[in-house]
Structure to design on (441 residues):
């Protein structure tokens, strides 16, 4: 079986590699020549646990190839997955120009029946536009070649994307023909042998499911952050509240950890896009509008705590930051809370020192030479006036307090993920600020 994957970002590269792992012949296509050259050498452009080894293995076995040309490789492909970016426009709507460009190229290049599968996160009704773009190019060629479109949204978590693909909670497929269903079922058969369900539905419902899922998770995060801020005001402990909530099976204990807001490539973009789509249909989603507003405010929480502690003046102070990626086990800094914090500190005249286990290269690309990059977590603490934990990487969980005591100018820690025990912090001589907890001085 042969398929093509257009786009070699997180979704495309993980999807193509995992399909190749099952014996499928995979052609991965991208217009970035330098990226393709590196991929053919086994050098991947992202940090994702387990992916590097899998790419190298499947290149060696000849099951995956990387190219800049779909036209030269589309022959005999039974499915072409569209996995290109859908960045937000200025109004928050998803920009479909890359998706529709791929659809047009499929129409220009296809020689036999295939299924065009939207893997990118796209607004509802996008598959209709994909179908029209393909058909338009076939009409220009005066070709009568049958094809189907399908929606197969991804539910991969950065940092565990390979495991999520190989052992999915569910596989959602929006389909409109038996022929396309047969191809998609065959492709996914290796991943459902242990009972993971394939859920078939109409295409519009599949497109909506992806947006609704991400928006629900974002809603849980913003809700808990709102509750955490109220806990601080009234003197409650949000960790206790969280445990009480999470014990209710109707609510569950996932995505109810307070912090400094959500980021990454999915939640901010998808929430914005669904809000925009709903407004276009004259049916505003008021809860999601509040979710987005709360999240934007939450990215300011650590900065406000730092500024308040230093009597509203951080000019000339050095603030150390642990963690830059929007979550652990990824180097992705898109919409990362760390960036919002750093920008605010720099605006107020503070000096910033940073360390992240894998996101330093991306940070230099995004933030330039305006901040100091450190080799390890303790170098960050040297002569810093305070330390802020932004991303909960494992190596930050049990710091050496004696070393920190010697290195920090002031023993002040701002914990943006509530990974430290406030009582333990106090015992070791630190002033401690968490999220939704009482400050300990």
């Amino acid at each position: 079986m042969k398929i093509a994957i257009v786009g070699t970002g997180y979704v495309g590269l993980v999807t193509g590699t995992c399909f190749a792992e099952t014996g499928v012949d995979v052609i991965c296509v991208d217009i970035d020549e330098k990226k393709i050259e590196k991929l053919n050498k086994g050098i991947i452009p992202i940090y994702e646990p387990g992916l590097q080894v899998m790419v190298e293995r499947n290149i060696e076995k000849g099951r995956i190839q990387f190219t800049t040309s779909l036209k030269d490789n589309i022959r005999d492909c039974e499915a072409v997955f569209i996995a290109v970016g859908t960045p937000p426009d200025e109004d928050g709507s998803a920009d479909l120009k890359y998706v529709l460009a791929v659809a047009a190229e499929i129409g220009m290049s296809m020689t036999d029946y295939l299924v065009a599968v939207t893997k990118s996160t796209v607004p509802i009704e996008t598959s209709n536009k994909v179908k029209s773009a393909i058909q338009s190019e076939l009409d220009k060629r005066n070709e009568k070649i049958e094809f189907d479109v399908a929606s197969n949204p991804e539910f991969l978590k950065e940092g565990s994307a390979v495991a999520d693909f190989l052992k999915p909670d569910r596989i959602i497929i929006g389909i409109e023909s038996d022929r396309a269903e047969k191809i998609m079922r065959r492709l996914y058969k290796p991943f459902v042998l242990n009972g993971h369900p394939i859920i078939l539905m109409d295409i519009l419902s599949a497109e909506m499911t992806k947006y609704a899922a991400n928006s629900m998770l974002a809603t849980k995060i913003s809700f808990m952050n709102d509750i955490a801020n109220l806990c601080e005001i009234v003197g409650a402990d949000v960790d206790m509240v969280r445990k009480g909530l999470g014990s209710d099976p109707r609510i569950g204990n996932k995505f109810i950890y307070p912090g400094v807001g959500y980021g990454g490539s999915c939640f901010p973009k998808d929430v914005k896009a669904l809000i925009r789509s709903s407004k276009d249909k004259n049916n505003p989603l008021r809860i999601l509008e509040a979710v987005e507003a709360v999240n934007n405010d939450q990215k300011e929480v650590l900065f406000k705590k730092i500024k308040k502690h230093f009597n509203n003046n951080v000019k000339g102070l050095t603030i150390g930051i642990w963690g830059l990626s929007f979550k652990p086990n990824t180097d992705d800094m898109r919409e990362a809370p760390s960036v919002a914090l750093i920008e605010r500190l720099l605006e107020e005249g503070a000096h910033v020192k940073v360390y992240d286990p894998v996101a330093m290269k991306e940070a230099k690309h995004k933030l330039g030479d305006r901040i100091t990059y450190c080799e390890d977590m303790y170098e960050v603490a040297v002569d810093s006036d305070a330390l802020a934990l932004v991303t909960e990487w494992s190596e930050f969980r049990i710091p050496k307090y004696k070393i920190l005591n010697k290195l920090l100018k002031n023993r002040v820690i701002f914990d943006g993920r509530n990974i430290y025990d406030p009582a333990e912090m106090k015992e070791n001589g630190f002033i401690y600020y968490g999220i939704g907890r009482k400050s300990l001085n």
About this structure: Residues 2-203 form a domain with the Rossmann fold fold (CATH 3.40.50.720). The mean pLDDT is 94. The first helix runs from residue 10 to 21. The longest strand covers residues 2-6.
